[in-house]
From TrEMBL:
Pfam families on file: FeS_assembly_P, ParA
Protein name in the entry: Iron-sulfur cluster carrier protein
Family listed: Belongs to the Mrp/NBP35 ATP-binding proteins family.
InterPro entries the record matches: FSCA_dom_sf (IPR034904), MIP18-like (IPR002744), Mrp/NBP35_ATP-bd (IPR019591), NUBPL-like (IPR044304), P-loop_NTPase (IPR027417), YlxH/NBP35 (IPR033756)
Binding site for ATP: G121, K122, G123, G124, V125, G126, K127, S128
Record key words, sorted: ATP-binding, Hydrolase, Iron, Iron-sulfur, Metal-binding, Nucleotide-binding
Organism this protein belongs to: Brevundimonas subvibrioides
Amino acid sequence: MIDRAAVEAVLNAIPDPATGRGLVEAGVAEGLTVTADRAGFVIEVPAARVAAYAPVRDAAEAALKAMPGMSRVSVILTSEAPAPARKASLSREAVDQGRPRAPVPTDRPSHVRRVIAVASGKGGVGKSTVSVNLAAAFARAGWSTGILDADVHGPSLPTMLGLSGQPEYRDGMMEPRRAHGLLAMSVGLLTRSDDAMIWRGPMASQALTQMLTQTRWGTEDQPLDVLVVDLPPGTGDVQLTLIQKTPLDGVVIVTTPQEVALADARRAHTLFQRVGVPTLGLIENMTGDVFGRGGGEAEAARIGAAFLGDLPLHADVRRAGDAGSPLAEGEMAARFDAIVVRVMAAG
Ligand SMILES: Nc1ncnc2c1ncn2[C@@H]1O[C@H](COP(=O)(O)OP(=O)(O)OP(=O)(O)O)[C@@H](O)[C@H]1O
Ligand SMILES: [Mg+2]
Protein backbone atom coordinates (compact mmCIF):
# COMPACT_ATOMS: atom_id res chain seq x y z
CA MET A 1 0.00 0.00 0.00
CA ILE A 2 1.40 3.37 -1.03
CA ASP A 3 0.91 6.02 1.61
CA ARG A 4 -0.07 9.51 0.49
CA ALA A 5 2.10 11.18 3.12
CA ALA A 6 5.10 9.20 1.88
CA VAL A 7 4.41 10.32 -1.69
CA GLU A 8 4.16 13.93 -0.58
CA ALA A 9 7.43 13.64 1.33
CA VAL A 10 9.18 12.27 -1.76
CA LEU A 11 7.81 15.13 -3.86
CA ASN A 12 8.70 17.75 -1.27
CA ALA A 13 12.31 16.63 -1.50
CA ILE A 14 12.31 17.99 -5.06
CA PRO A 15 12.51 21.79 -5.21
CA ASP A 16 10.20 23.86 -7.39
CA PRO A 17 12.52 25.98 -9.61
CA ALA A 18 10.32 29.06 -9.17
CA THR A 19 10.05 29.15 -5.36
CA GLY A 20 12.69 26.75 -4.09
CA ARG A 21 10.05 25.01 -1.98
CA GLY A 22 9.07 21.36 -2.26
CA LEU A 23 6.70 20.45 -5.10
CA VAL A 24 3.66 19.73 -2.91
CA GLU A 25 4.33 22.64 -0.57
CA ALA A 26 4.70 24.98 -3.53
CA GLY A 27 1.37 23.77 -4.98
CA VAL A 28 3.07 22.55 -8.16
CA ALA A 29 1.79 18.98 -7.88
CA GLU A 30 -1.79 19.52 -8.97
CA GLY A 31 -4.45 16.89 -8.63
CA LEU A 32 -2.16 14.48 -6.82
CA THR A 33 -3.83 11.08 -6.85
CA VAL A 34 -2.50 8.20 -4.78
CA THR A 35 -4.01 4.73 -4.87
CA ALA A 36 -2.80 1.39 -3.49
CA ASP A 37 0.01 1.05 -6.03
CA ARG A 38 -0.14 4.15 -8.23
CA ALA A 39 0.47 7.85 -8.07
CA GLY A 40 0.04 10.69 -10.51
CA PHE A 41 -0.33 14.42 -10.79
CA VAL A 42 -0.24 17.32 -13.22
CA ILE A 43 2.27 20.15 -13.42
CA GLU A 44 0.65 23.04 -15.22
CA VAL A 45 2.87 26.00 -16.04
CA PRO A 46 2.88 28.95 -18.47
CA ALA A 47 3.94 27.82 -21.95
CA ALA A 48 7.26 29.70 -21.63
CA ARG A 49 8.23 27.66 -18.56
CA VAL A 50 7.51 24.16 -19.86
CA ALA A 51 11.15 23.50 -20.76
CA ALA A 52 12.31 24.60 -17.30
CA TYR A 53 9.95 22.12 -15.67
CA ALA A 54 10.76 19.09 -17.83
CA PRO A 55 13.67 18.04 -15.53
CA VAL A 56 11.35 18.50 -12.54
CA ARG A 57 8.82 16.14 -14.09
CA ASP A 58 11.53 13.60 -14.84
CA ALA A 59 12.94 13.80 -11.32
CA ALA A 60 9.48 13.43 -9.77
CA GLU A 61 8.67 10.47 -11.98
CA ALA A 62 11.93 8.72 -11.18
CA ALA A 63 11.62 9.36 -7.42
CA LEU A 64 8.06 8.03 -7.29
CA LYS A 65 8.90 4.97 -9.38
CA ALA A 66 11.68 4.15 -6.91
CA MET A 67 9.19 3.88 -4.04
CA PRO A 68 8.68 0.27 -2.92
CA GLY A 69 5.31 -1.13 -4.02
CA MET A 70 4.77 1.50 -6.73
CA SER A 71 3.56 -0.08 -9.98
CA ARG A 72 2.56 2.91 -12.06
CA VAL A 73 3.47 6.60 -12.03
CA SER A 74 2.12 9.29 -14.26
CA VAL A 75 3.39 12.85 -14.08
CA ILE A 76 1.98 15.09 -16.77
CA LEU A 77 3.59 18.39 -17.70
CA THR A 78 1.22 20.70 -19.50
CA SER A 79 1.12 24.35 -20.40
CA GLU A 80 -1.67 26.68 -19.46
CA ALA A 81 -3.53 28.02 -22.43
CA PRO A 82 -3.10 31.81 -22.61
CA ALA A 83 -5.99 33.54 -20.87
CA PRO A 84 -8.62 34.47 -23.42
CA ALA A 85 -10.13 37.92 -23.53
CA ARG A 86 -13.29 37.70 -21.44
CA LYS A 87 -16.02 37.98 -23.99
CA ALA A 88 -18.84 36.94 -21.78
CA SER A 89 -19.81 37.50 -18.20
CA LEU A 90 -20.00 34.21 -16.43
CA SER A 91 -22.34 33.58 -13.55
CA ARG A 92 -20.88 33.99 -10.08
CA GLU A 93 -20.67 30.27 -9.44
CA ALA A 94 -18.73 29.72 -12.61
CA VAL A 95 -16.36 32.57 -11.82
CA ASP A 96 -15.81 31.13 -8.35
CA GLN A 97 -14.93 27.82 -9.95
CA GLY A 98 -12.30 29.58 -11.99
CA ARG A 99 -10.64 31.16 -8.97
CA PRO A 100 -7.06 30.10 -9.41
CA ARG A 101 -4.69 27.99 -7.41
CA ALA A 102 -6.84 26.60 -4.62
CA PRO A 103 -5.79 22.99 -4.17
CA VAL A 104 -7.93 20.95 -6.52
CA PRO A 105 -9.88 18.18 -4.81
CA THR A 106 -9.45 14.91 -6.65
CA ASP A 107 -11.32 12.65 -4.29
CA ARG A 108 -13.88 10.36 -5.76
CA PRO A 109 -17.40 11.71 -5.65
CA SER A 110 -18.92 10.25 -2.50
CA HIS A 111 -21.51 7.49 -2.75
CA VAL A 112 -20.85 6.77 -6.43
CA ARG A 113 -19.93 3.17 -7.25
CA ARG A 114 -18.50 3.61 -10.78
CA VAL A 115 -17.47 6.56 -12.92
CA ILE A 116 -17.45 5.79 -16.65
CA ALA A 117 -16.36 8.36 -19.21
CA VAL A 118 -17.55 8.58 -22.79
CA ALA A 119 -14.84 10.02 -25.01
CA SER A 120 -13.96 10.53 -28.64
CA GLY A 121 -10.86 11.71 -30.41
CA LYS A 122 -12.91 13.66 -32.92
CA GLY A 123 -15.81 16.04 -32.36
CA GLY A 124 -19.30 15.50 -33.71
CA VAL A 125 -19.19 11.71 -33.76
CA GLY A 126 -22.20 11.39 -31.45
CA LYS A 127 -20.48 11.26 -28.07
CA SER A 128 -23.17 13.21 -26.22
CA THR A 129 -25.91 11.23 -27.94
CA VAL A 130 -24.24 8.00 -26.86
CA SER A 131 -23.68 9.30 -23.30
CA VAL A 132 -27.33 10.18 -22.77
CA ASN A 133 -28.72 6.99 -24.31
CA LEU A 134 -26.14 4.82 -22.57
CA ALA A 135 -27.15 6.40 -19.26
CA ALA A 136 -30.82 5.74 -20.05
CA ALA A 137 -30.00 2.11 -20.85
CA PHE A 138 -28.11 1.71 -17.55
CA ALA A 139 -31.23 3.01 -15.79
CA ARG A 140 -33.42 0.53 -17.71
CA ALA A 141 -31.08 -2.23 -16.59
CA GLY A 142 -31.92 -1.29 -13.02
CA TRP A 143 -28.86 0.74 -12.08
CA SER A 144 -29.30 4.13 -10.43
CA THR A 145 -27.59 6.36 -12.96
CA GLY A 146 -26.23 9.88 -13.18
CA ILE A 147 -24.92 11.79 -16.16
CA LEU A 148 -22.38 14.59 -16.00
CA ASP A 149 -21.85 16.83 -18.98
CA ALA A 150 -18.17 17.73 -18.74
CA ASP A 151 -18.04 19.27 -22.19
CA VAL A 152 -17.22 22.75 -20.95
CA HIS A 153 -16.85 24.10 -24.47
CA GLY A 154 -20.18 22.90 -25.80
CA PRO A 155 -22.48 21.47 -23.16
CA SER A 156 -25.37 19.66 -24.80
CA LEU A 157 -27.04 17.88 -21.89
CA PRO A 158 -29.52 20.69 -21.17
CA THR A 159 -30.88 20.32 -24.72
CA MET A 160 -30.72 16.55 -24.83
CA LEU A 161 -32.52 16.13 -21.50
CA GLY A 162 -34.69 19.24 -21.73
CA LEU A 163 -33.14 20.92 -18.67
CA SER A 164 -32.85 24.58 -17.78
CA GLY A 165 -32.36 26.74 -14.71
CA GLN A 166 -29.56 26.79 -12.18
CA PRO A 167 -29.14 23.87 -9.79
CA GLU A 168 -30.11 24.36 -6.13
CA TYR A 169 -27.49 24.47 -3.42
CA ARG A 170 -28.16 22.73 -0.11
CA ASP A 171 -25.70 22.16 2.75
CA GLY A 172 -22.80 23.18 0.56
CA MET A 173 -23.66 20.73 -2.21
CA MET A 174 -25.35 21.14 -5.58
CA GLU A 175 -28.49 19.09 -6.08
CA PRO A 176 -28.42 17.22 -9.41
CA ARG A 177 -31.44 17.67 -11.65
CA ARG A 178 -33.76 14.73 -12.20
CA ALA A 179 -34.84 13.97 -15.76
CA HIS A 180 -36.05 10.79 -17.47
CA GLY A 181 -35.04 8.64 -14.50
CA LEU A 182 -31.50 10.06 -14.45
CA LEU A 183 -29.65 12.43 -12.17
CA ALA A 184 -27.97 15.09 -14.27
CA MET A 185 -25.52 17.95 -13.95
CA SER A 186 -24.10 20.10 -16.71
CA VAL A 187 -21.75 23.02 -16.90
CA GLY A 188 -24.48 24.42 -19.14
CA LEU A 189 -26.67 24.80 -16.04
CA LEU A 190 -24.01 26.80 -14.23
CA THR A 191 -23.61 29.50 -16.86
CA ARG A 192 -26.18 31.63 -18.56
CA SER A 193 -27.12 30.04 -21.83
CA ASP A 194 -26.03 33.02 -23.91
CA ASP A 195 -22.54 32.94 -22.41
CA ALA A 196 -19.83 31.86 -24.76
CA MET A 197 -18.06 28.82 -23.39
CA ILE A 198 -14.54 30.12 -23.21
CA TRP A 199 -12.65 28.42 -20.44
CA ARG A 200 -8.96 28.14 -19.85
CA GLY A 201 -7.63 24.64 -19.13
CA PRO A 202 -7.33 25.00 -15.34
CA MET A 203 -10.73 26.64 -15.08
CA ALA A 204 -12.31 23.87 -17.12
CA SER A 205 -10.82 21.15 -14.97
CA GLN A 206 -11.86 22.87 -11.76
CA ALA A 207 -15.42 23.18 -13.03
CA LEU A 208 -15.42 19.46 -13.76
CA THR A 209 -13.94 18.53 -10.39
CA GLN A 210 -16.56 20.61 -8.62
CA MET A 211 -19.46 19.15 -10.60
CA LEU A 212 -18.08 15.72 -9.81
CA THR A 213 -17.39 16.06 -6.10
CA GLN A 214 -19.79 18.79 -5.02
CA THR A 215 -22.95 17.40 -6.56
CA ARG A 216 -25.07 15.16 -4.33
CA TRP A 217 -25.01 12.18 -6.72
CA GLY A 218 -25.75 9.65 -4.03
CA THR A 219 -26.28 9.28 -0.32
CA GLU A 220 -25.15 6.68 2.15
CA ASP A 221 -28.55 5.01 1.92
CA GLN A 222 -28.89 5.39 -1.83
CA PRO A 223 -25.53 5.31 -3.56
CA LEU A 224 -25.39 5.91 -7.28
CA ASP A 225 -24.52 2.75 -9.25
CA VAL A 226 -22.94 4.50 -12.21
CA LEU A 227 -22.04 8.02 -13.26
CA VAL A 228 -21.61 8.55 -17.01
CA VAL A 229 -19.30 11.47 -17.86
CA ASP A 230 -19.56 13.08 -21.32
CA LEU A 231 -16.04 14.41 -21.91
CA PRO A 232 -15.13 17.16 -24.35
CA PRO A 233 -13.89 15.78 -27.69
CA GLY A 234 -10.22 15.63 -28.53
CA THR A 235 -6.93 14.53 -27.05
CA GLY A 236 -5.30 17.87 -26.22
CA ASP A 237 -4.02 19.39 -23.00
CA VAL A 238 -7.47 20.14 -21.65
CA GLN A 239 -8.58 16.53 -22.00
CA LEU A 240 -5.33 15.32 -20.53
CA THR A 241 -5.69 17.53 -17.47
CA LEU A 242 -9.32 16.57 -17.06
CA ILE A 243 -8.78 12.84 -17.15
CA GLN A 244 -5.72 13.05 -14.96
CA LYS A 245 -7.72 14.80 -12.27
CA THR A 246 -10.86 12.70 -12.60
CA PRO A 247 -11.11 9.31 -10.92
CA LEU A 248 -12.39 7.28 -13.87
CA ASP A 249 -13.06 3.55 -13.66
CA GLY A 250 -13.15 3.12 -17.40
CA VAL A 251 -13.80 4.80 -20.72
CA VAL A 252 -16.06 4.04 -23.65
CA ILE A 253 -14.70 5.46 -26.91
CA VAL A 254 -17.08 6.55 -29.66
CA THR A 255 -15.99 6.67 -33.28
CA THR A 256 -17.54 6.81 -36.71
CA PRO A 257 -16.46 4.24 -39.32
CA GLN A 258 -14.34 6.82 -41.17
CA GLU A 259 -10.57 6.46 -41.22
CA VAL A 260 -9.91 9.92 -39.68
CA ALA A 261 -12.25 9.24 -36.78
CA LEU A 262 -10.69 5.81 -36.24
CA ALA A 263 -7.21 7.31 -36.05
CA ASP A 264 -8.50 9.79 -33.47
CA ALA A 265 -10.17 6.99 -31.51
CA ARG A 266 -6.81 5.21 -31.38
CA ARG A 267 -5.19 8.40 -30.06
CA ALA A 268 -7.87 8.69 -27.38
CA HIS A 269 -7.29 5.07 -26.35
CA THR A 270 -3.54 5.74 -26.05
CA LEU A 271 -4.16 8.86 -23.96
CA PHE A 272 -6.35 6.96 -21.48
CA GLN A 273 -3.86 4.11 -21.32
CA ARG A 274 -1.13 6.57 -20.40
CA VAL A 275 -3.06 7.66 -17.33
CA GLY A 276 -4.09 4.13 -16.38
CA VAL A 277 -7.79 4.29 -17.29
CA PRO A 278 -9.00 1.04 -18.92
CA THR A 279 -10.84 1.25 -22.23
CA LEU A 280 -14.10 -0.66 -21.72
CA GLY A 281 -14.63 -0.74 -25.46
CA LEU A 282 -15.36 1.04 -28.73
CA ILE A 283 -18.75 1.98 -30.16
CA GLU A 284 -19.12 2.65 -33.88
CA ASN A 285 -21.74 5.34 -34.41
CA MET A 286 -23.37 6.50 -37.65
CA THR A 287 -22.74 3.15 -39.31
CA GLY A 288 -24.28 2.85 -42.75
CA ASP A 289 -24.15 3.87 -46.38
CA VAL A 290 -22.95 7.41 -45.66
CA PHE A 291 -19.86 6.73 -43.54
CA GLY A 292 -19.34 3.03 -44.17
CA ARG A 293 -19.26 0.21 -41.65
CA GLY A 294 -16.97 -2.20 -39.84
CA GLY A 295 -14.08 0.17 -39.17
CA GLY A 296 -14.87 0.40 -35.47
CA GLU A 297 -14.78 -3.34 -34.93
CA ALA A 298 -11.50 -3.68 -36.85
CA GLU A 299 -9.98 -0.81 -34.88
CA ALA A 300 -11.10 -2.33 -31.56
CA ALA A 301 -9.36 -5.57 -32.52
CA ARG A 302 -6.22 -3.66 -33.52
CA ILE A 303 -5.90 -1.86 -30.19
CA GLY A 304 -7.00 -4.90 -28.17
CA ALA A 305 -10.23 -3.36 -26.86
CA ALA A 306 -13.72 -4.84 -26.78
CA PHE A 307 -16.13 -3.90 -29.56
CA LEU A 308 -19.35 -2.85 -27.88
CA GLY A 309 -21.58 -2.50 -30.92
CA ASP A 310 -22.56 -0.31 -33.83
CA LEU A 311 -25.33 2.24 -34.11
CA PRO A 312 -26.72 3.09 -37.54
CA LEU A 313 -27.61 6.61 -38.55
CA HIS A 314 -31.26 6.69 -37.57
CA ALA A 315 -33.73 9.56 -37.57
CA ASP A 316 -35.15 8.46 -34.18
CA VAL A 317 -31.79 9.14 -32.57
CA ARG A 318 -31.55 12.71 -33.76
CA ARG A 319 -35.23 13.38 -33.06
CA ALA A 320 -34.93 12.11 -29.49
CA GLY A 321 -31.91 14.34 -28.89
CA ASP A 322 -33.61 17.41 -30.30
CA ALA A 323 -36.80 16.68 -28.36
CA GLY A 324 -34.92 16.56 -25.06
CA SER A 325 -35.60 12.95 -24.14
CA PRO A 326 -33.44 9.83 -24.49
CA LEU A 327 -34.63 6.86 -26.56
CA ALA A 328 -36.96 4.74 -24.42
CA GLU A 329 -38.04 1.96 -26.76
CA GLY A 330 -37.62 0.55 -30.24
CA GLU A 331 -34.74 -0.85 -32.25
CA MET A 332 -32.20 1.84 -31.33
CA ALA A 333 -32.98 1.67 -27.60
CA ALA A 334 -32.51 -2.11 -27.81
CA ARG A 335 -29.05 -1.56 -29.31
CA PHE A 336 -28.11 0.59 -26.33
CA ASP A 337 -29.44 -2.13 -23.99
CA ALA A 338 -27.12 -4.63 -25.70
CA ILE A 339 -24.17 -2.23 -25.37
CA VAL A 340 -24.87 -1.82 -21.65
CA VAL A 341 -24.79 -5.58 -21.16
CA ARG A 342 -21.32 -5.63 -22.76
CA VAL A 343 -20.10 -2.64 -20.73
CA MET A 344 -21.26 -4.32 -17.54
CA ALA A 345 -19.36 -7.44 -18.60
CA ALA A 346 -16.23 -5.39 -19.38
CA GLY A 347 -16.27 -3.30 -16.22
N1 LIG B 1 -26.79 7.29 -34.74
C1 LIG B 1 -27.24 8.51 -35.04
N2 LIG B 1 -28.26 8.67 -35.92
C2 LIG B 1 -28.71 9.90 -36.26
N3 LIG B 1 -28.24 11.05 -35.77
C3 LIG B 1 -27.23 10.97 -34.89
C4 LIG B 1 -26.67 9.71 -34.46
N4 LIG B 1 -25.68 9.96 -33.56
C5 LIG B 1 -25.63 11.31 -33.43
N5 LIG B 1 -26.54 11.92 -34.22
C6 LIG B 1 -26.75 13.37 -34.38
O1 LIG B 1 -25.50 13.94 -34.74
C7 LIG B 1 -25.33 15.21 -34.12
C8 LIG B 1 -24.04 15.21 -33.31
O2 LIG B 1 -24.17 14.34 -32.22
P1 LIG B 1 -23.59 14.68 -30.78
O3 LIG B 1 -23.92 16.07 -30.37
O4 LIG B 1 -24.01 13.59 -29.87
O5 LIG B 1 -22.04 14.57 -31.10
P2 LIG B 1 -20.79 14.89 -30.15
O6 LIG B 1 -19.73 13.92 -30.50
O7 LIG B 1 -21.21 14.96 -28.73
O8 LIG B 1 -20.41 16.32 -30.67
P3 LIG B 1 -19.42 17.39 -29.99
O9 LIG B 1 -18.06 16.95 -30.40
O10 LIG B 1 -19.82 18.69 -30.60
O11 LIG B 1 -19.65 17.32 -28.51
C9 LIG B 1 -26.58 15.44 -33.29
O12 LIG B 1 -27.46 16.23 -34.02
C10 LIG B 1 -27.15 14.04 -33.08
O13 LIG B 1 -28.56 14.05 -32.94
MG1 LIG C 1 -21.06 16.57 -27.34
